[in-house]
From TrEMBL:
It comes from Zizania palustris (Northern wild rice). Residues 70-97, 493-520 are annotated as: Disordered. Pfam families: ARCH_RTEL1 (PF23109), DEAD_2 (PF06733). Residues 7-301, 430-724 form the Helicase ATP-binding domain. Residues 79-91, 502-514 have a biased composition (Low complexity). Keywords: ATP-binding, Hydrolase, Nucleotide-binding. One of its GO terms (molecular function) is ATP binding. GO terms for biological process: negative regulation of DNA recombination; negative regulation of t-circle formation; regulation of double-strand break repair via homologous recombination; telomeric loop disassembly. Signal peptide: none annotated. This is Helicase ATP-binding domain-containing protein. One of its GO terms (cellular component) is nucleus.
Amino acid sequence: MPVYSIRGVDVDFPFDAYDCQITYMDRVLESLQQGKNALLESPTGTGKTLCLLCSALAWRRSFGEFLRGGGGGGGGGSQQPPYGSQPSGSQHLGDTASQSSRYPVIIYASRTHSQLRQVIKELKATSYRPKMSVLGSREQMCIHNEVSKLRGRAQNNACHYLCKKRWCRHQNSVTEYMRSNSELGSKPFDIEDLVDIGRTKGPCPYYISREVSKSVDILFAPYNYLIDPGNRRSLTGIPWDNAVLIFDEAHNLESICADAASFDLLPNNLTSCIAEAQECIQLCSVKRSIENSADKQFDPENYAILKALLMALEKKIGELVIDSKELGYTKPGSYIYEFLSELNITSETSKKLIDTIDGASLLLEEGNSAETGPKMKAKATFHVNECQQTSGDALKVLGRRFFLLPSHASAIPAHSPPTPAAAMPVYSIRGVDVDFPFDAYDCQITYMDRVLESLQQGKNALLESPTGTGKTLCLLCSALAWRRSFGEFLRGGGGGGGGGSQQPPYGSQPSGSQHLGDTASQSSRYPVIIYASRTHSQLRQVIKELKATSYRPKMSVLGSREQMCIHNEVSKLRGRAQNNACHYLCKKRWCRHQNSVTEYMRSNSELGSKPFDIEDLVDIGRTKGPCPYYISREVSKSVDILFAPYNYLIDPGNRRSLTGIPWDNAVLIFDEAHNLESICADAASFDLLPNNLTSCIAEAQECIQLCSVKRSIENSADKQFDPENYAILKALLMALEKKIGELVIDSKELGYTKPGSYIYEFLSELNITSETSKKLIDTIDGASLLLEEGNSAETGPKMKAKATVCRLETIRDILDIIFRGGGQNHAKYYRFHVNECQQTSGDALKVLGKASRTLSWWCFNPGLAMEEFLKLGVRSIILTSGTLSPLDSLAMELNM
């Protein structure tokens, strides 16, 4: 690998670096060497992640070799004593950090685990092998049969309790595993790798990551581990005075920091706190009588004071005069001190309160040890917290752990434990019978009323409901009740005890194309609900909520090949390369997994009548053989409700694959829609990177050759395979590349900017217009077929899987965006921009000496993406989140 000397540091880089990459690494090293903070901006596709990793790790290595056998650029690593040779002490991160505190520690943070996974993948492409670890939540990593089913604080508390009692065999085996595998971390690993270790070998992935993290060169973590005070407290051993924090993808860091420094005290949370304080009073009394102890930490008087303060706080909040329900009650931030001082809560008294609460945590973890066991305790803690977080009721489960205080009986209805599904409460709302898993609060009934109003009247709706009020459950129950009012759920699925309309068994009619919805006409007389959220983990939680209801609609969930592919070769690819390889192998019938889908579906035609998730499909694929990706597509052809990520609806390319959906009878629900504006704007924009354009030219040239070979072999005059078409395409792309390079850019920082309508003038000089673009799109579609098939004399299933990439589809998407609807009115919401850039470091077709410029067309009106749904004639669009306000401006921005 090339080595660059930058500011006296030898930086190994996987490829020949461009000037802007060297400049970027120079700025990183300047910040690190001088101990300064830095804000670094670099356009997408410039390899900033790779530059960050290589420069930061080269700087770290300049202090000494990487820890425990890890090396970079061929160097060895400093050895650490084997795990277990010193007391393990607490399980908090960094208890042995003093071993390596003489060396700086790099903490690399990004917003999501999927982003961190990509960063770790980039690390694997370098020569650096630092000692590393990655942090994740118990939700991502727990493999305990009971605890893994819990969420949030319930899961954390159950884990703490079981570990304290040494009732978790997975955590108990961590020490022995680490003794035998002390080198873990010397090679890059991800959370999925740890989970695989846990499932195959037994040790807890969560605590393995903590143990490895005690002495590292670089630690990968989500933002919240650094920004959130509660999470940061668990990182007690980090040598902060010798740490470097890198926040990648930091464009949304302001809002995350603001959220972390803010709080919302919900009424159900406050009520739960009062109940917990009362329980602590009782536990203290029991503990003192049993142990005959006068320990001040367990003085019931402390918790009586805490309970009285919380009740006074609840009363004081209720006494505030709110003139407008819409505006609420607002004061300057400093008013909080005046407000709390009337309850004698000050800076000094708060210290005593915090000590009391810390003692309460210990008491509530231990509970009544005479009644608890590992399984019972995990479930008891779960019910309390789960109810707080999902259905909006802090005291749904009354009994062994909590009881309802008489003074609050009028404010909060007394509940017994959640009733079985068969006896769930039923609410008649707007003439629709809605089954709900619990006794609903007024705000939940109001929310469901608004959902039903939107659905019945075919109107769009923006619905805001605070976190913890059970909006997901309300959405599901009201929408599915409305759907059921048209007729029973499809193929054996029932809700509230009803049977389901039967569909012909899979395979009894021609399957046709594998696009979604080819048989949608079977059920088009019934509305289809499409439930979208931003990430798969959010959808997983929604499907979990569906399982808690009595509704059993016919359902399916969509995911990417990256999440679902189980083919040995194709599963290793990413993006378009993976999609094209899959298409090719399926077309040639070289994929045994896809070949077995038909037979599997004939034998399992009821699949979808019970809720399932992507992980369930992957398990089916790995144990039974059929392709999870195509199973989900087959089930999706006739459903009552379909779960999908945002991009399947908003991105034009993905939406084209949903060819069979009856849009005029579809309801779109966008959950967690607070960031929908930026997603819509991104979907309506494009960046044409120089390496993509170079690749497109190379592909056009390949198509010319393939056409000539095909014509000579088949002696065919098929116009679709006329090499002249691809010669014209290649010439146009080369002219476009030249024209971009000829633009005069006065400032590299500002680039070249024009109004959005300039794109038409710019392209018309190349004779690319609304009319000619249609011919170009047809040519590109033909190119995709040619490149998939390739030279059949030379290809085999394995070779083709690794070779297939079609960058020309990028040009197709760009033409669709520019000439959408054949008009130019949307251009007024765009900006034309060209900036100096370099090609991505991982591109196999980069050509030195070419103009390194990116052509961008940026959309500043997110409503353009939503207008596409209006053109499709969808029945209703519902956007919901905990924070959508101000609603009027959001409705205007999204053209709703």
